């Protein structure tokens, strides 16, 4: 007769979802990485690049870099840092989508698993005849050691990423180690904490800053969205929305346009 613990373990195994079936890395424009296998993104609909306002310089640099990657030329890992809602994540997806529209062989892989699984992802991508922008959105660390592990991957350690993949990371600050962790580390060894904090950011060949937009830039973003979706433009109404939200950004502009379309009874 099977003992109770064995029966419990077998019941839990039956309840556990089966591992996802690996998607063909050549077949889809975007994927999710949950730590075990590539899963095709259900819907990859990036915004057209011309709708992203106020980030022209960052757009051109990132696009040129990922175009080089798609052509198997030398390309950089990139850190996009700055204020929330300023278009960092949208820009990454839009650049990949624009390159795909031009026939470039490149896909987006969004990492939604712990960074410790990145070596397994790199092993999956290595040898595939396609370029991959490995996207880590809103990077944060639970421990300083995670930052050191990522630094090792970037600088070509044993678990370095393959030549057909580059890391594209977004964060709210350029110095990636959270302040509370930095303070804990500095209490032990101040010099090491500062070096780790700066060294990780410096391992990215591209570091692109994004900043809070002013009123004119915010209204330009709103105007671009409403024109694209055939909605009325009312600058005062758009500014009142931003005032109620307490900030001006591309994200707030899009949220306003969603509300505006809803009021007009239109889908987006």
From TrEMBL:
GO terms for molecular function: ATP binding. This is ATP-binding protein. The lineage of its organism: Bacteria, Pseudomonadati, Pseudomonadota, Alphaproteobacteria, Sphingomonadales. Keywords: ATP-binding, Nucleotide-binding. Pfam families: DUF815. InterPro entries: DUF815.
């Amino acid at each position: 007769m099977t003992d109770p613990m064995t029966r419990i373990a077998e019941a839990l195994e039956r309840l556990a979802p089966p591992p996802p079936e690996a998607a063909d890395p050549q077949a889809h424009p975007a994927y999710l990485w949950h730590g075990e296998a590539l899963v095709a993104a259900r819907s990859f609909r990036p915004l057209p690049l011309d709708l992203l306002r106020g980030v022209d310089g960052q757009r051109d640099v990132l696009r040129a870099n990922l175009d080089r990657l798609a052509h198997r030329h030398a390309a950089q890992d990139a850190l996009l840092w700055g204020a929330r809602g300023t278009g960092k994540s949208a820009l990454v997806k839009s650049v990949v989508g624009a390159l795909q529209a031009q026939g470039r062989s490149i896909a987006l892989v969004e990492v939604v698993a712990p960074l410790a699984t990145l070596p397994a992802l790199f092993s999956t991508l290595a040898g595939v005849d396609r370029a991959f922008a490995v996207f880590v959105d809103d990077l944060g660390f639970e421990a300083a050691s995670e930052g050191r592990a990522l630094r090792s991957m970037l600088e070509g350690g044993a678990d370095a990423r393959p030549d057909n993949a580059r890391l594209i990371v977004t964060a709210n600050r350029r110095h990636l180690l959270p302040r509370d962790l930095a303070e804990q580390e500095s209490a032990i060894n101040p010099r090491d904490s500062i070096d780790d904090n700066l060294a990780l950011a410096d391992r990215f060949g591209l570091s692109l800053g994004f900043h809070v937009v002013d009123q004119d830039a915010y209204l330009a973003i709103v105007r671009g969205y409403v024109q694209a979706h055939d909605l009325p433009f009312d600058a005062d109404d758009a500014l009142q929305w931003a005032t109620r939200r307490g900030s001006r950004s591309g994200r707030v502009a899009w949220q306003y346009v969603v509300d505006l379309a809803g009021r007009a009874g239109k889908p987006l």
